Amino acid sequence: MINMQEFARRLSTLGAGVYTSDDVVDLATAADVRISADREIDAAMAQRLLNQISPTPPVTGAQITASQWPPPVSSQRAAPPVSFSSPGAVDGPADQPSRPRRPGPARSNRRPGTRPTGR
């Protein structure tokens, strides 16, 4: 368990910006957690606070509250690999160009070769 100031310091070392105790209070408010400067932060609470940060930090609540800081490189979560099957963007239905309309009379729903009967 760590205190709020240490939590803010460790967040700052992740390179996501400089965090202060006030920032931790804001995270706690967003996570619906009551927190005070003298309250210890455990792994579960740390995870709830980390879940409020976007983009998500590369550590878990257990790692950020662990006695060893920073966590060993091998235990840090890495972003999952991403692969693309084909380069470029794919147009959605709304992005498709409309077909040019052909001049002339409107098409009817008749099959070709049938003639209207003049009855």
List the keywords.
119 residues, 4 helices, mainly alpha, two-stranded antiparallel sheet
Structural commentary:
The structure is a single chain. With 119 residues, this protein is mainly alpha-helical. The chain contains four helices and two strands. The chain has helices spanning 4-13, 21-30, 43-50, 61-65; strands spanning 2-3, 40-41. Strands 1-2 form a two-stranded antiparallel sheet. Helix 1 (4-13) packs across helix 2 (21-30). It is rod-shaped. The chain starts with a strand and ends in a 54-residue tail after the last helix. The model has no long low-confidence stretch (mean pLDDT 77). Residues 99-119 have a biased composition (Basic residues). Residues 54-119 are annotated as: Disordered.
Write the layout of secondary structure elements.
Layout: E1 2-3, H1 4-13, H2 21-30, E2 40-41, H3 43-50, H4 61-65
Antiparallel strand pairs: 1-2
Region (Disordered): 54-119
Biased composition (Basic residues): 99-119
